[in-house]
Amino acid sequence: MPQVKIIAKNFMDMVASLTARDLDRLYENPFICEAIVRSLPPLAKKYVLQMLYIDGSVPAKMMEEWVLPDGFTKHRVAIDRLVQLRIFSEEKKKEITYRLNSTFQTNLRKHLIYGGALPREPMPPGITARLPSLEELEAYALGQWECFLLQLISSAQAEKPTNFSSSMMKIFQRGLLTQRDKEAPRLTESGFQFLLMDTNAQLWYIVREYISNSQERGVNQADLISFLLELSFHVAGEAYNINTVNDLQRSMIKDFADLGLVKLQQGRKESWFIPTKLATNLSVSLTDSSGRKEGFVVVETNFRMYAYSTSKLHTEILRLFSRVEYQLPNLIVGAITKESLYNAFENGITSEQIISFLQQNAHPRVAEKIPSVPENVCDQIRLWESDLNRVEMTPGYYYDEFPSRDVFEAACDYARDRSGLLWEDSKKMRLVVKAEVHMHMREFLRGQNK
Amino acid sequence: MASAPSKLYSDDVTLVVVLLDTNPFFWSTSSFSFSQFITHVLVFVNAILTMNQLNQVVVIATGYNSCDYIYDSSLASNQSFGNGRMPALCANLLQNLEDFMVKDEQLGKEESEGRITCSLLSGSLSMALCYIQRIFRSGSLHPRPRILCLQGSPDGPEQYVAIMNAIFSAQRSMVPIDSCYIGAQNSAFLQQASYITGGVHHKPQQLDGLFQYLLTIFGTDLHSRNFLQLPKPVGVDFRASCFCHKSTIDMGYICSVCLSIFCKHHKKCSTCGSIFGQAQSDDASATNRKRKTPDL
Asked: Distance from B9 to chain A by nearest Cα, in Å?
């Protein structure tokens, strides 16, 4: 399995890593309390609500009685999460007890009794000019996002550059691209993995980078997170007056517009922002709820590939592992060749990633078939990859000239115990051990010599 | 990263259909007032909606002459949001509830003098199941549905057949019926409903804490139920009602053809028309179609 560090499952891991002071401040905002409740594991949500009207603290023993024996691990996960987010505070006197964070408790109670209001009132339709329909808005959001991605992977390709400064862009690219001197930047393994993720997951990754970078620009992370979450509680497609946000948030909104989270519009006097689906989906903890995009790739048994797409981004992705032969207005025709794949492997892309990309983006017509990508193509891709891996390299150390057979044998056993023995020749008393065992081995042999 | 196309959202997305008992005959005698009850229920509905953005709640009022949908969170979400003090959910629901109560009372007047004291549970159960069926068929993704009956008035034995049919269709479509009984005696129908469909039945001891009961027991989503301790049925009242006089019986007669239940011996089954032989007659066993089983 390739490294998975790039997949930010959701935002809450990040929230959990905030400092205690920031977290406490975050809970002063009722929307954040709500968003955080929603992001918890099901059992944890249940506990929060169950504790909502208990003012005292509850012993851990008692909580354990709530669960069936089967659910004990889930119970632990839930409790750990709650403690980590400082929603539960742990008290150790005679026994461990838990108590709900009081700010959090009050805010959530208020929310339950008075219902969820909206963070700010949408503008009355009289003032705003024609608002885009939801479909238009979604098309806009996806277009904007794609444009951003394209700029991300190859800056030269973008038609209209976004407002992100090049240093900002560099930060986004960090980890996704590598640049050897004087060469054009190339996608790394995680970069390719990034491109394979669905839009929502990609968005999280970028947002996470954006936030973790914010401190360098002197913006408090908690402020950013709180505004992002607040944004996700707005109604998609409604217009909100830009004067209702402060200066810091206004600059964020400009950045978000580049990502397609909001659309900015200007009327005669006022200007306003319209949150898109991308923004309102942010607080949903399930990353796959955005709905899978329709696939577009058809792979034939003769290794030819037809991609029904007008998107430049798709062309760029396909170019990573195939030879694009010609491009028609709505169709990209390419071939998967040994050379093109070797190129991809050299960049750290694995065969499994390529195959799963082809499968996930299979055109609806072929997606119904099983397998959606012809077997011979899949097998060949794997074979070509394993061709490259015929030789396995393990750094090692070579030992010879042992003083006696006993010492040699003891050394062999010693290495074997540490599963570091690579090769031995008992006749000539020679052996090779893994590099990481070398230090121990030297110590061991020194001890033997005495 | 592989994702199998599933018809369900992730684990805990739920659709709860709440059946509210609005029977004025019951509430006028109860020590727990209707307005208190509604307050608890409203907060509970809010809590369910808070737990997940995709959760959905439908409220159906069960009157003594009719029943009707009074709230659907999937419709209300985009509407205007209240007038200052009251949130949209409450305002919307209470307005509809009031309209419903007035209409229900008028229907009662048109009919003969109110001899009915039980509410139309069979009707609201059927409406809930219809709604759930529509959800099942509507789109690719749907939440996991369950029904919650908040019932106070006593069982109406004349609804026995209709309620049992509803229960079995719920069982077939794997929809658990949870029931919370707030009246004085326990309800046999609801015990059976929850038992058969795998839901939870509970009769709160202290109605002042209704909200905590609702949240702790009935707020548990179907996924978490695998891990949590929930009240188990102590003893389920399995008694049936006879088809002829609609009274609850311990022992009776069953039609061997259609399984209709009678409290007395009849010559002919009133449901399917089969002719029964004499009790204890020897020639009855000769012909298979005529037989009577004194058993239940």
From this structure: 8
Angle at A311 between CA A305 and CA A315, to 5 degrees: 45
Q: How far apart are CA A440 and CA A446, in angstroms?
A: 10
Sequence length of chain A is 450
Task: Name the residue facing A42 among B5, B12, B78 (closest C-beta).
Answer: B12
pLDDT of residue A250: 80
List of residues 6+ apart from B98 with CB closer than 8 A: none
Å from B40 to nearest chain A CA? 9
Between the alpha carbon of residue A215 and those of residues A208, A218, A230, A268, the distances in Å are 12, 5, 20, 36
Contacts of A117 in chain B (CB under 8 A): 81-82, 87
CA dihedral B285, B291, B294, B296 (to 10 degrees): 120
Which positions in chain B touch A34 (Cβ < 8 Å)? 50
Q: Does A328 touch chain B (CB under 8 A)?
A: no
Q: Would you say how long chain B is, in residues?
A: 296
CA A19 to chain centre: 22
**Distance (Å, whole) CA A117 – CA A111:** 8
For chain A, how far is it from start to end, CA to CA, in angstroms?
Answer: 46
pLDDT at residue B291, as a whole number = 45
Say if CB B148 and CB B220 are below 8 A apart. Answer: no
Rounded Cα gap, residues A85 and A78, in angstroms:
11
* Per-residue pLDDT, B140: 61
What's the rounded Cα separation, in Å, for the pair A373 and A356? 9
Q: What does the alpha-carbon distance between residue B172 and residue B166 come to, in Å, rounded to a whole number?
A: 10
A4 contact B CB<8A: no
Closest CB from B3, B82, B219 relative to A49: B219
Q: What is the pLDDT of residues B119-150, one digit of tens each?
A: 889 999 999 999 999 988 876 667 889 999 99
Q: What is the pLDDT of residue B85?
A: 47
Enumerate the H helices of chain B as residue ranges. Answer: 24-29, 34-51, 73-76, 88-110, 121-138, 160-172, 188-197, 210-213, 282-286
Candidates B3, B11, B42, B51: best to mutate against A (most CBs of A within 10 A) is: B51
**B4, β-bridge pairs:** none
pLDDT tens digits along B36-57: 899 899 889 888 888 877 788 9
Q: Which of A49, A196, A198, A280 should we substitute to test contact with B (largest number of B Cβ atoms within 10 Å)?
A: A49
For residue A285, how many other CB atoms are within 10 A of its CB? 19
DSSP letter, residue B228: B
Q: How far is A121 from chain B (nearest CA, A)?
A: 10
B227/A74 Cβ within 8 A: yes
Q: Which residues pair with B180 in a beta bridge?
A: B150, B202
Q: Do A46 and B220 touch (CB under 8 A)?
A: yes
Name the residue with higher pLDDT: B162 or A198: B162
For the cut 80, the answer to whether the pLDDT of residue B279 exceeds it is no
**B147 vs B136: CA distance, rounded Å:** 14
Q: Do A68 and B226 touch (CB under 8 A)?
A: yes
Pair of tokens at residue B189: 């129908």
| A39, burial (CB in 10 Å: exposed 0-12, middle 13-18, buried 19+) | buried
Which of A31, A205, A289, A352 is best to mutate for the B interface (most B CBs within 10 A)? A289
If DSSP codes are grouped into helix, strand and coil, which group holds residue B95? helix
